[in-house]
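Quarterly update from the structural biology core.
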Amino acid sequence: MSPLRQLIQLLLVSAFLALTDTPTEGRAPVKASVTSAVQLPIEGELPSFGHGNEWFNSPPLSPADLRGKVVLVDICTYSCINWLRHLPYVRAWGEKYRDRGLVVIGVHSPEFEFEKASDNVRRAVKAIGLTHPIVIDNDHAIWRAFENEAWPALYFVDAQGKIRHHHYGEGAYDQGEQILQQLLTEAGQKGVPQGLVSIEPQGVGAQADWPDLRTPETYVGYGQGDNLSSPGGAKRDQFATYTAPAQLALNHWALVGKWNVGRQATVQSQAGGKIVFRFHARDVHLVMGASAAGSPVRFRVRLDGRSPGTAHGLDADSQGDGVAKEPRLYQLIRQSGTIEDRTFEIEFLDAGIETFSFTFG
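Predicted structure, tokenized:
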């Protein structure tokens, strides 16, 4: 989309929001009017899903099949924390407006190689409890057709198959729901529910503690990785022995033990390897999995050298113990109270772990 077109869209949507009674996110929902909304711009046509590899929860769908329906296209990848945090809203909208003509379609455009495996996606779809249609976009052909730029991304499509709005990343949930209400009303739907969904996401879906989030997503493969503080840096595509410095600066990390730093994944060759990270955030997640299918890898988490106790995440107990199996996002730390600079450490008690990226919340 051209910069001019983006500017026009921003101005129109800003005017739309100014004309609606929109609460600040996090406040109790109020009734949102769509009758006085300005016309949303037309960004393009809903592209074909024909280059998708496989469908879950539905036979293949085409733009012609969807004509007359308002469509919300959710471009995702299953290990992405940003997608996992916006999913509760997408799910709630799908349930609230399904009987008024809304169709939610997930486009799974993988970031990591393991997310291209149908079995991994199928397992994730079941574990997360997704019921809306999902098309696998392993070659990013659908991604390119939308001229997409990020995970997650939402595309709002009217009943004539015109893309009327898009949003990259988390947030703007009030705005997104009001736009859905407007498009359903434009489509002639009667009795479109007003107001805004009121939900309190739990687990990995809980919204980030933005004021205290000072550590960015950090990849451990050399393709996008940075801030590795082990002396000598990364020895690419070969096993090497790493150590940690006496002190880590904030947002820096180190490997300990024998590891192979690859483009996407950093792989441990023997038991006892560690990753140490100095961070500032409520939550710590690590995308990882056992490199050999069916061979789980035990791990142990420490926070400032001690068991995490009540600060443990969903995938570790109060002693910090857990098991990595299928490749996915694992929540390892969730703190409460005052958030400070802390040192996170994970030790792998078995060989064969593949690690991809840290994310925080």
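Helices lie at 3-18, 63-66, 81-97, 118-128, 141-145, 173-186.
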